[in-house]
């Protein structure tokens, strides 16, 4: 049993044959007045709140520009963290405040009367079209933007400045370094020792036991002028696998040393650092998008979106037993789109 608006009971059977042909329109709920609708003091207070939010957006955008120009990332981890913190905080303030201001304005200042009209053909007659234009004008008038000068100024200023936090960094890159061929080369070269990250301590082959994992950087990395950028390209993960478990092409058999293999840590999908090694399966997992590489089979992709294996660093040992590079990587490191440069 069910009850319609007129409190008349209607029997509804499983086959729905008892349903009425049409349901009565329940209409709109009674409109509830807001404080700002009847109290001028509340209305001005709400307007000030919206203005403050827009002003916070302006301050956020200005703060972003100041941080962008006066607090560059620098060459130390601390300076990079400070720059990212300031840029992120001010960008959030600028974008969030402008959104919060728009929402608050719509909820407390704009008309909240619900209106309904019957559907009719898309093309209305001239009379209806004229009425629609008149209603749009009435809506603009009802929003109060014309008579709220301070609010209008805050909105225009916030909207005018907000895009700068996106445009300025983009424009700043126009004159930057676009020599993408640098990604084809790293600090690795013949005779360069493999050292522990971050200590820079050279590694002897005898120290690398089966199943062990080493995070590796080139010797003398800290002596480079742009060592952070160079490290981002040269980071390597080295493991020792039972030589009987290794699958190597004939031309690459001298790229490893007694089961010790070294591969770029930069994922060939979007460049995240891969460092999650599973000893039993010899699989290396990228934590960002779960691309999985088989370290025992030339780091080939066994799962995930990566489209090519990790580049292998050819290694050997020197006269003192230290692990050294035989050469640089033989292919560009990082995301696979760098292959277009080949």
Describe the protein's architecture and organization:
The chain is α+β, with helices and mostly antiparallel strands and 342 residues long. The protein has seven helices and twelve strands. It has two domains: 34-115 and 124-172; 182-341, Rieske [2Fe-2S] iron-sulphur domain (Rieske Iron-sulfur Protein, 3-layer Sandwich), CATH 2.102.10.10. A hairpin with a 5-residue loop joins strand 9 and strand 10. Helix 2 (40-70) packs antiparallel against helix 3, helix 2 packs parallel to helix 5 and helix 2 (40-70) packs parallel to helix 6 (164-172). The termini are far apart.
Keywords:
alpha+beta, single chain, disordered C terminus, elongated, 342 residues, four-stranded antiparallel β-sheet, Rieske Iron-sulfur Protein
Identify the CATH homologous superfamily of the largest domain: Rieske [2Fe-2S] iron-sulphur domain
Assess the beta-strand content as a share of residues. 5-15%
- How many helical stretches? 7
CATH topology name of the largest domain: Rieske Iron-sulfur Protein
Q: Which overall shape is indicated by the principal axes computed on the Cα atoms? A: elongated
CATH architecture of the largest domain: 3-layer Sandwich
Q: How do the strands of the widest beta sheet line up side by side?
A: 3-4-5-6
CA gyration radius, whole angstroms = 33 Å
- Category by helix and strand content: alpha+beta
Q: What separation lies between the terminal Cα atoms?
A: 75 Å
Describe the sheet with the most strands.
4 strands, antiparallel
Number of strands: 12
Return the average pLDDT rounded to an integer.
84
Helix-strand topology string: EEHHHHHHEEHEEEEEEEE
* Highest CATH level, the class of the largest domain: Mainly Beta
In the predicted model, the low-confidence regions spanning at least 5 consecutive residues are 1-8, 338-342
Percentage of helical residues?
25-40%
Task: Provide the domain count.
Answer: 2
């Amino acid at each position: 049993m069910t009850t319609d608006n007129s409190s008349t009971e209607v029997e509804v059977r499983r086959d729905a044959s008892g349903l009425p042909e049409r349901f009565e329109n329940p209409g709109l709920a009674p409109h509830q007045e807001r404080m700002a609708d009847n109290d001028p003091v509340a209305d001005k207070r709400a307007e000030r709140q919206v203005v403050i939010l827009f002003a916070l957006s302006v301050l956020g955008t200005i703060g972003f520009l100041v941080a962008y120009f006066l607090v560059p990332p620098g060459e130390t981890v601390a300076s990079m963290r400070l720059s990212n913190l300031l840029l992120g905080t001010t960008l959030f303030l600028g974008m969030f405040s402008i959104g919060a201001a728009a929402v608050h304005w719509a909820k407390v200042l704009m008309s909240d009367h619900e209106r309904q009209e019957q559907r009719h053909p898309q093309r209305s007659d001239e009379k209806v079209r004229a009425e629609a234009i008149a209603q749009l004008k009435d809506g603009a008038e009802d929003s109060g933007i014309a008579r709220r000068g301070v609010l209008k100024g805050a909105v225009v200023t916030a909207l005018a400045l907000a895009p700068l936090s996106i445009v300025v960094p983009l424009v700043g890159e126009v004159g930057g370094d676009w020599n993408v061929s640098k990604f084809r080369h790293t600090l690795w070269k013949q005779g360069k020792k493999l050292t522990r990250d971050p200590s820079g301590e050279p590694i002897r082959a005898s120290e690398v036991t089966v199943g062990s994992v080493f995070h590796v950087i080139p010797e003398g990395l800290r002596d480079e002028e742009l060592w952070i950028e160079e490290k981002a390209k040269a980071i390597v993960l080295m493991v020792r696998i039972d030589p009987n478990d290794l699958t190597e092409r004939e031309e690459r058999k001298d790229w490893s040393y007694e089961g010790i293999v070294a591969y770029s840590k930069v994922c060939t999908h979007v460049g995240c650092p891969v460092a999650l090694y599973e000893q039993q399966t010899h699989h290396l997992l990228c934590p960002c998008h779960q691309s999985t590489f088989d370290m025992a089979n030339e780091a080939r992709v066994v799962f995930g979106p990566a489209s090519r294996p990790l580049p292998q660093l050819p290694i050997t040992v020197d006269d003192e037993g230290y692990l050294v590079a035989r050469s640089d990587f033989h292919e560009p490191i990082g995301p696979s789109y760098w292959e277009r440069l080949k």
